[in-house]
Design goal:
Strand content: 35-45%
Helix content: 10-25%
Oligomer: single chain
Shape: extended
Distance between the termini: 123 Å
Largest sheet: 7 strands, antiparallel
Number of strands: 23
Number of helices: 9
Strand order of the largest sheet: 17-18-19-20-21-22-23
Structural class: alpha+beta
Radius of gyration: 37 Å
């Protein structure tokens, strides 16, 4: 029936219809793929360009980032940058040292060239150097400066701790958990194998001071002279760099009374799964068997009570049967810290003054350890006439420090079967419970409460100066200063 003459034209018409339909389906598929590809390129593509200054010169190592994301890059030696997989309508932020940060609404552009303008305000800042003050733009030596905008908000008993991570090329590390311990300051790496690498401290032009004598509330600014040319005026004393501190001074106007106080607590990061009881016993067994094997012994001999095994390689089962103590919980504490600073400043055109007093107390992570300070500062400036001016600076400072008799690692690892309570009027040792197999180290409580290790320090940096203004741009200044230190 389908091969009849009437059916044949029908079949031919349908075949032509399907061929035409297939052509249009194929065309629509190709257009869809093309549109999808174009849309993908529109919404997700690579962004590139070049960063230059106002003179058209490339800026190397400029930071180029997409606002609101973690995506970013830096420019190469020719100022070019490239960002991959950028999506949607984006905003770029471009910054570089010495230039003003710039934000650009990129939209869906694929090539964006940026021109940065000089940060004139930053170059106009005045920095303190060894032989006076200069504008940043006039200084070719390597100098870092930090203004005290937020330093007095950092809860720390030491000024150095507040500076950690705030100055390039200056490495400050706190190596001990002792409250009041001086951090180590290294400028531009270690310069000597045997000699000291500590920088020279200069306070208001007086070399040889100590940052421990300063309170952060009294600081105006800090400059670090990092290379030989900037520190050359101090000779070999500046071989490790120079830290120059400028303290606050009074200004003409009404008296200003300022109170800065904070209080808080600190707690060390601790380990919460100490070995006690059966775990401690198994650890001792493994340890003693290893030592016995190295000495040529037979580890199949029972661990306790067999005369063939020397007593110094035996482990008494009482070590797991006695009441257990987690010494970490016994020797550490949540340490309170507090600081109070009261200052008064003011003056007129002829006399200006700044007076401040500080009290600080920082407890240690180990019980009984603390660092307590009392500080006073007075800066007085007097203008006698248009030629002569003079001033006096006083900074008495007293510290009292108690150091725990041992370090935290030694104390928290003490055998857990020893009780913290006194036995027959004294803190017990391991051999008061088990005569052999353990060292005779004293109880951690002996180091904490039985040893009274105090360090008392009194220091005073004082200076008096006179300045003669001989003519515009030329002045003569002479000063007399002393640094008195007394330790007990």
């Amino acid at each position: 029936m389908y091969l009849s003459k009437n059916s044949k034209p029908y079949l031919k018409i349908n075949l032509r219809y399907f061929k035409a339909a297939g052509f249009w389906i194929l065309l629509v598929a190709i257009l869809s793929i093309s549109f999808t590809s174009e849309a993908k390129s529109l919404f997700q593509s690579n962004l590139h360009g070049r960063v230059t200054n106002q003179e058209g010169q490339p800026i190397q190592n400029a930071s180029v980032s997409i606002v609101g994301t973690q995506s970013g890059t830096v420019t190469d030696a020719d100022g070019f940058y490239s960002l991959t997989n950028t999506k949607g309508n984006i905003v770029l932020e471009v910054s570089s040292v010495g230039y003003q940060t710039k934000r650009i609404n990129v939209g869906y552009q694929r090539e964006v060239n940026i021109t940065l303008e000089l940060d004139v305000a930053g170059l106009s800042d005045v920095v303190v150097i060894g032989y006076g003050t200069q504008k940043k733009s006039s200084v070719t030596a390597s100098i870092s400066k930090i203004q005290n905008d937020v330093l007095d908000e950092v809860p720390s008993a030491r000024l150095e701790t507040a500076l950690i991570g705030r100055m390039s090329g200056v490495d400050i590390s706190q190596r001990r958990n002792i409250p009041g311990a001086a951090p180590e300051i290294i400028i531009r790496g270690t310069g000597s194998i045997s000699a000291s690498n500590s920088p020279l401290i200069v306070i208001d032009g007086f070399p040889g001071g100590d940052l421990a004598q300063l309170d952060m509330n009294d600081i105006e600014s800090i400059e670090v002279l990092k290379d030989a040319s900037s520190a050359a005026i101090y000779g070999s004393r500046g071989a490790g760099g120079v830290v120059m501190v400028t303290t606050k001074r009074g200004k003409s106007g009404k008296p200003i009374l300022n109170l800065n106080a904070y209080a808080g607590v600190g707690r060390p990061i601790v380990f919460n799964d100490w070995l006690t009881g059966e775990e401690w016993y198994k650890y001792l067994v493994k340890y003693q068997n290893r030592e016995f094997a190295w000495a040529g012994g037979d580890t199949t001999i029972p661990i306790f009570g067999d005369s063939r095994r020397p007593v110094n390689y035996q482990v008494n089962p009482k070590s797991k049967e006695l009441p257990q103590t987690i010494w970490q919980d016994e020797v550490i504490q949540t340490a309170p810290v507090q600081n109070y600073n009261l200052s008064l400043s003011g003056g007129n055109d002829n006399v200006r003054y700044y007076i401040s007093g500080t009290y600080s107390n920082e407890a240690g992570a180990l019980k009984t350890a603390f660092y307590e300070t009392y500080g006073f500062r007075a800066n007085l400036d007097v203008k006698v006439n248009r030629i002569v001016s003079l001033g006096v600076e006083l900074n008495p400072h007293f510290t009292k420090q108690r150091v725990a008799g041992s370090n935290m690692v030694s104390l928290v690892k003490y055998p857990p079967f020893v009780s913290p309570e006194k036995l027959n009027g004294k803190y017990p040792r391991t051999f008061d419970y088990i005569p052999t197999g353990h060292s005779g180290q004293q109880s951690p409580y002996v180091f904490l409460y039985g040893v009274r290790n105090f360090n008392n320090n009194f220091a005073n940096v004082g200076r008096a100066f006179i300045n003669l203004n001989l003519m515009d741009g030329l002045s003569f200044k002479t000063s007399l200063g002393t640094n008195i230190i007394y330790n007990t």
